[in-house]
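[audit] Reproducing an earlier prediction to check determinism. Same input, same settings, fresh worker. If the tokens differ from the archived copy the diff job will pick it up downstream; this log only records the rerun itself.
[audit] input (508 residues):
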Amino acid sequence: MKKSHIIIVSNRLPLILKKTEDGKIEVEKGAGGLVTAMAPILKNRNGTWVGWPGYVQESDMDDTMLPEIQKAVSGYSVKPVMLNSDELKKFYEGFSNSIIWPLFHGFIGKCLFLPEYWASYQAVNKKFALTVYQNADDPDFIWVHDYQLILVGAQLQKFHKRTPIGFFLHIPFPPIDTFIRCPWRFELLSAMLEYDIIGFHTILSKRNFIGCIKKIIQDAQIDAKKAFDETVSELRFNNRVIRIGVFPISIDYNEFFLHAWDSDVYKRSKEIRNNAPGTKLDTKILLGVDRLDYTKGIPERLKAFKRFLTRFPKFHKKVHFIQLVVPSRREITAYADLKLKIEQLVGEINGLFSTNDWLPVQYMFRNLERNELISLYRACDIALVTPLKDGMNLIAKEYCACNIDEKGVLILSEFAGAAHQFYQDAVLVNPYDIEGTASAIYMALNMPLEEKSQRMRNLRENVKNKDIFWWLNSFLNAAIEKDLSSFPQVDEYFPCKPDFELQSMVFL
């Protein structure tokens, strides 16, 4: 019997093509949790990764470049799908990031429902599907990732490719009253039902998806209790059984944990603490790390910090907030406007509160190397992870893995997917509640050491036990397991009220 392979399909390959000043193309290895998790299984199953290498080219890939691309990975194959400038604009910047991204995060006002975006999205998804079709055999398992490639499964079915196909959505799935605004709602949902298994981060996203199916695709047969309450449930549609599951993604815990113990990281974290402006011995460092995106709640966080400094002047010169923003999608107007707004707020806070020897906010707009980022995680006393909406948010998990002295506090948005796992030990906030977030900062700064340690110890154990490899195995087991009775029910969390300590505080 022929051994099956696994084929990963994502918008980006685990490598990057860059053009040098002299016009040559260089290939760099990619990084990240998905690459770390997938590489071993791809090597073991002689697998293939299909995706865009991040380089715009007006014609198909020059075959002479393929050996150089293949050298960037070892043990498995990569198959590049090239995008030209028009496709980048209409498929990637257009339908993917100006329709699906804002729609699925609940920012309907930022959606641009242009028909040419939909046409390009269909064409590029077909291009990806064709590459998969040309490289897959019937026993293979095809795993498609994320919102850019929702239609790939449906296109493969049109090619009569009957090999098992899975899909994982890395962003939230919206409720029916939001999703229904999309002109192509029926087409998107119908395409998702062409997969054999569909994965989400949280029970809420799964419930939203099933709610949309019930309203828009009325022929689907669903066991309501199982659909809403179990980790993995089944749906019948067009004489097929489709599995729908909850699989919260994570990080490679050991990678971050071991890096945090590195002597260079330790020295750098000490430098960061010693150089923090303020009263050197007791300055508390707050940290925000975000990609430039309007879903991350950066302006709201800065307003909350400003409110904190206004309400609690005794902390002047005793706190220092470092906000790292990683550049992203600056060619899109909404992102350029956001960058300007962030810079204005930073300037406003520093203008109001800074002194000759104290700068309240340190703002960095750039990428950081891994060790520098981990040094920041180790140096800070409080991590502010307060997105307005997030599928998961791995920054929260990275911070916990790196907090090896277990003295840090995680302030976490109720609307991050990570809140479904961390609600008992993180300090939860509604990022739209400026006063409440300011109070949460005050609470975290005054939290007893014993409580900090217990909370952080629990958070770290959570991340360690449910790491990226646990996530990978959970999805693949659900894809091939015949009997689902062994899967546990989902731990639920629905934001309803802040921590008791916040309710009982006297607001100044």
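[audit] rerun output stored. Observation attached for the diff report: The chain is about 45% helix and 15% strand.
[audit] end
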